[in-house]
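Our preliminary data section would be incomplete without showing what the modeling component actually yields. Below, a chain of 687 amino acids is followed by its predicted structure, encoded as tokens that our downstream tools consume directly.
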Amino acid sequence: MGSTISVADLHRGGRWARLVLALGMSDPLGRVVAVALALYRKYRPATFAEVVGQEHVTDPLRIALSAGRVNHAYLFSGPRGCGKTSSARIMARSLNCVQGPTPDPCGECESCVSLAPNGPGSVDVVELDAASHGGVDDTRELRDRAFFAPAISRYRIFIIDEAHMVTTQGFNALLKIVEEPPEHLIFIFATTEPDKVLTTIRSRTHHYPFRLIPPGIMRELLERNCAAEGVAVEPSVFPLVIRAGGGSARDTQSVMDQLLSGAGADGVTYERAVSLLGVTDIALINDMVDGLATGDAAAVYGTIERLVDAGHDPRRFASDLLDRLRDLVLLSAVPDSGARGLVNVPDDELSRMSAQADRLGPATLSRFAEIVHTGLIEMRGATSPRLVMELLCARMLLPAAVPSDPALDSAVLQRLEQLEKRASVAPIAAAAVPALAQQAAPAPTQAPTPAAAPVQQPQRQPEPVPVAAAPVHQAPPPAAAPAAPAEPGVMDAAALRRIWPELLAEVRRQPGGRSTEAMLTNATVQSIEGDMVVIAHAAAPLARRLGEARNVDLISTALNNVIGGKWRITCVHGSASAAPQAAQAPPQPRPQPTRPSQAAAPPPPQRQAPRPATDHDDIPPPEPPEPDDPLPPPAPPPPPPKTEAEEEEEMLVEASQKPGEGERIVARDPEEVAIELLTQELGAKKI
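Predicted structure:
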């Protein structure tokens, strides 16, 4: 019971009587019983050191007060119940303390006692609510009063709460005095919407933004206040209260005050908190999540039935379910979210939630959260929230029921494409590493000399051996190819170059593949365009020979055995750095060259060219050459044509030829090579 005072004392008037009338009530015997102060008023901070969760504001203010750097106007902004008005009163107390300006008021002087959290107030500190005193007449009256010096304090301080409610005309009336106030005048504006404060006023203040209090700090505050009240509270109650308060210290303490008022002999229990706050029982949330994780439709819709039978609001259940999905998403992404304070639940519940996050996975959890969030918006104007909740569960149980999102589909397709590329290229590259390492390692018994080890030497393959005695570094047979074949469009030229030795070994194993493997030794992969593989060779005759149907089919078969898929092969003359335009169309077969000595002795091209036409139409055409013109000398008989086996053997010798002692390979200009071929094959002469 609070202290009592008789009604006769109230009739005497005075400030104490007005305070009791404001805080008390009368009982049948004519006595006034003072009501208990709310928690947020009883434990309101009296100094900046007692303000919790706002260190980014209180620390700079304490430093400024210690240094004596006091500004004439301040703007405190932030959400409701986060300590703006309390900090403004602490600022006034720190400024008018006899030891001030100081960050730690003494609490004993007249000003400190008057401006204490439960003090009567000071005549030099005026607190106005702009919601009811924001007009131009009110601000003019305040402006006129501002010029009077303080009565007993150092500063005359005006605290204007809900400053965004001041009209534009009212701000204009205050503009001049806020811009150039007297030395004894200080303005402190407090607002939840700083953008609505006149820009010219806001630019003349020191702006300090307040924030919502984190759950961890809020729990410490609640536990300290409950311990001071001497009431036992179950640990599972604090997360419910903190979530209901939404980060506001005043709202959170008001919720806890309600629970403390109805606490019995055993304190505040979880069941009592759930029933009073209207939140969903944690058991229903767990049953719903477990049913969604296993795809048990009976458990899901049974939970909704129990929810409605218990009298819970489906909207509140959806909101609590969304909060649980949020916690599960964090646990899936950051397994130690509980230790970091990102998820504020009891330890036993945290272990169960971790298991739920592992079963569902981050993608499913994100999708569930998106569906529930959309459903909450649909529930706002729904006549049957239960029906909407059941439809939400149907969407979560049936992935096909969710409407397709083009942006999401494109993102999923892109991700799948990247995963397929990794799955197809990574095994091939990993399989090629041992072969490359074996080929790059020098022989243990022979030390290569500079002349015997040219640059191309590590790429040459050993002579074929029987399958039973195949060395370890050779490529595996076709049956050991990767399980996931590379599809056209997935492989690139770089990946194929990495497995080039393995491809050469597979070409050699093909029937008649020795010659093709020898020609491919100095060839390179120029590009891959879809299912077309463009192979470049520096020697034009070998490039032309590789482009024949027999060699193309053999290379395509070997490529299919190594990486899978169907591939088309094109061979061009050039190097890997040549322009890719040369590989866009397969080279046309060149007509069989005919040397001048092998021709049927036709007249020279100069003699067959027609004479230039004249302007006269009656001139007859030129006559054929007369018989007495000298004929060209008879051509020698052509050499007997070489057989295909002889030409193949000659090319193999040319391709496998090594530089001699003291020789080195010199790169030739492609233009010179082309002129030499034209001279040898067609008998052309360089002009």
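The first helix runs from residue 7 to 11. The chain has a mean pLDDT of 74. Preliminary results of this kind motivate Aim 1 of the renewal.
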